[in-house]
Amino acid sequence: MDLVVRPASAADAGVLHRLMLGLAEHEGLTAFVSVTPASLGEALSASPPRAAFLIAELEGRPVGYASWTRCYSIWRGQDYLNLDDLFVVNEARGAGVGEALMRAFANEAGRDGLSGRWEVASDNHAAQRFYIRLGAELEGKFIARWNTSAMPRD
Most exposed among 58, 73, 84, 154, judged by the fewest C-beta atoms under 10 Å? Predict the structure, then answer.
């Protein structure tokens, strides 16, 4: 099995977009995806890039990705990497792709001495077990979203 995890570039925008749509379909959230290959390419071409991505390829075929942004923790007074997505296509699950992506993410964070943070659905017990096995600590929190159309303004 030839598994390669590599940083994505703007040239990978189309591949990343297809993988992102796969994740959205898996979670039943395709209606919320408005990013395009062009806007992904622009985000990856910005200096510094607006987000970072890793692509996993199994036997030369893209089968997963991880994405994150660098954020500042006000309470801790330091930056951290906020993992936004970790996705592996169904056919490649169980082949070590997710773990390889997470280890590569850890290497990216470790290079700058940063911690990592992410969200996992409360009912996604398989993902919770996976993250715990890798050494992550889970906290019980809810995610709140406030769309601009719902925000009261004067």
Answer: 154
Q: Encoding tokens for residue 16? A: 């990343």
Q: Is residue 101 within 8 Å of residue 92, measured between CB atoms?
A: no
pLDDT reported for residue 41:
96
Amino acid (one-letter) located at 102: M
**89 residue type, one letter:** V
Q: What single DSSP character describes residue 114? A: -
pLDDT digits (tens, 9 = 90+) for 47-96: 989 999 999 999 999 999 999 999 999 999 999 999 999 999 999 999 99
Q: 154 falls in which pLDDT band (50, 70, 90)?
A: confident
Question: Would strands 52-58 and 61-73 be described as parallel, antiparallel, or unpaired?
Answer: antiparallel
CA-CA distance, 123 to 130, in Å (whole number)?
13
Decide if 117 contacts 85 (C-beta within 8 A).
no
Could you tell me the two tokens for 7?
A: 């940083």
Distance CA 65, CA 20 (A): 8
Strand 115-117 and strand 78-88: the pairing is parallel
